[in-house]
Design goal:
The protein has two helices and three strands. With 75 residues, the chain is of the alpha+beta class. It has a single domain, classed as YefM-like domain (YefM-like fold, 3-Layer(aba) Sandwich). The mean pLDDT is 85. This is Prevent-host-death family protein.
Length: 75
């Protein structure tokens, strides 16, 4: 991932978007301290996402998470 300050992003926005279309990611930095504030990443359509492999058990078991599954904050 490359990083760009806001001014450079504004000046090269079209070029950055072309690189993002081809899979590259960019971090956006801002201010004198060059603090990271955002990221530009390629869009991934849910239809294109393949099933996740589960390591050494791939092809032996299938993992399915129910639509009604809820994450619980354990803090």
């Amino acid at each position: 991932m490359k990083t760009l300050p806001v001014g450079k992003l504004k000046a090269q926005f079209s070029e950055v978007l072309e690189l993002v279309k081809h899979g590259e990611s960019f971090g956006i930095i801002y201010g004198k301290k060059k603090k990271p504030i955002a990221m530009i990443i390629p869009y991934v359509d849910k239809e294109e996402i393949k099933e996740r492999k589960i390591g050494i058990l791939d092809e032996k078991y299938k993992l399915k998470i129910d639509e009604n599954f809820k994450f619980v904050d354990c803090r």
